[in-house]
Amino acid sequence: MESPAVEIIDLVKRYGRTTAIDGLSLSATRGAVTAILGPNGAGKTSTVEICEGFRRADGGTVRVLGLDPSRPELRARVGVMLQAGGVPPAMRCGEWLRLMARFHAHPLDPAALLERLGLTGHARTPYRRLSGGQQQRVSLASAVVGRPELVFLDEPTAGLDPQARHACWELVGDLRAAGVAVVLTTHHMDEAEKLSDQVVIIDHGKVVAEGTPSSLTGAERQLRFRARPGLTLDELLTALPAGSAAKESPSGHYIIEGQVGPELLATVTAWCAAEGVTADDLSIERRTLEDVFLELTGRELR
Fold it and tell me: Which ranges carry the ABC transporter domain (predicted)?
C-alpha cells in the first residue's frame, strides 16, 4: 500500500519549559484534504511547520511523502502557503509567479493561475501595494504553481471576500481531484466541513478527535431556541424522551439533543409555555463541526 502523504507518530515539540506538542500522532492521505483544527496555542502551527521543514521536532517521527521533512528533494514536490506570504515586497506578483514556475519541471501556466484567482489586473502591481486578500491569493498561487504532490495551506481564505473564498475552495477541490494531498489549517469551521475528507482537532498539543466531518458531527439533529437566560432545565429533561439532553450554551441559547420529532417539539413548546417564555428563533438543525469543536476545546478565549 502507498504510504500516507504525511505521517506523524508521537511528535513532541518544546519551547523552553513549554511543551507545545505532546505526543501527537496523525496521518494525511494522498489525494485527500486533511484539515487540522485547534484553538490558538493548541500546537497546530508548530505541527505544520515541522512537516514543512521549518522547525525540528524534539521527539517522535515525521515523514512527508515517505521522507524526513528536512530532505532537500521535497522542495520540488511540496507546496507551502505561508500566512506571512514570503514574497519580496517590491516584486510584482506576475513576475513572482513566473519566477516560482521556473523552479519546476512542469508548472501550471502562471497567467492562467492569475486569471483564475482574479489577479490578472494586478500582475504588474508590487506585492506591498496589494490588499491583504490579494496578497493571500498570490501566496496560494505560489504554493500550487509547481504542481506539487502535497500542499500545506495555512489559513488559505483569511481576509478573502466571498468571491475569492469560493475561488479558493474550487482550486482546493481541483487539487484533490488531481490526486494532490492537501493539508490545511483554518479557523472557519464551515470551510473545514465543506472541503475536508478528514478532520483532526488538536488541543494542548494532543489529538482530541479525528474522523470525517460526518462521523464527527453525527446524524442526530438538534432543536435550538432563544429565551431568557437561566431557565431550569430539570423538569424539561424529565419530560423529554429517553436519551435526550438539554443545555444552555451560551447564555440565553438553548440546545435540545436527541430524536427530534413531533413529540419532542411539542414537549419543549409546552414547557416554554409553562415557564411563561417564548421560544424565539426556534429551529431544527444538524450538529455542526463548530459545535463539536467548542465541546472539545471549550468556549473560553485563549
Answer: 6-229
Rounded to whole angstroms, the Cα distance separating 142 from 171 reads 13
> By the 8 A CB rule, do 260 and 222 touch?
yes
Q: How far is CA 271 from CA 145, 246, 255, 281, in A?
A: 59, 13, 14, 16
CA distances from 37 to 94, 112, 136, 190, 283 (A): 32, 31, 20, 12, 27
Give the dihedral of Cα atoms 190, 193, 196, 201; nearest 10 deg.
100
Boundaries of every domain in the chain: 6-216, 219-286
Q: What is the pLDDT of residues 92-105, one digit of tens each?
A: 999 999 999 999 98
Pairing verdict, β 33-37 and 198-203: parallel
Reported in sequence order, the residue ranges of 149-286 that DSSP labels E, i.e. its strands, are 150-154, 181-185, 198-203, 206-211, 221-226, 245-248, 253-258, 280-286
User: Which residues, 6+ apart, have CB-to-CB distance to 222 below 8 Å?
Assistant: 255, 256, 257, 260, 284, 285, 286, 287, 291
257: β partners: 222, 245
| Distances 16 to 13, 20, 58 between C-alpha atoms, Å | 10, 10, 11
pLDDT in tens, 38-60: 999 899 999 999 999 999 999 99
Residue corresponding to grid cell 423529554:
240
pLDDT band at 112 (very low <50, low <70, confident <90, very high): very high
Residue type, 232: T
Helix (H) or strand (E) holding 295: helix 289-297
Architecture of the domain defined by 6-216: 3-Layer(aba) Sandwich (3.40)
Task: Name which CATH class applies to 219-286.
Answer: alpha beta
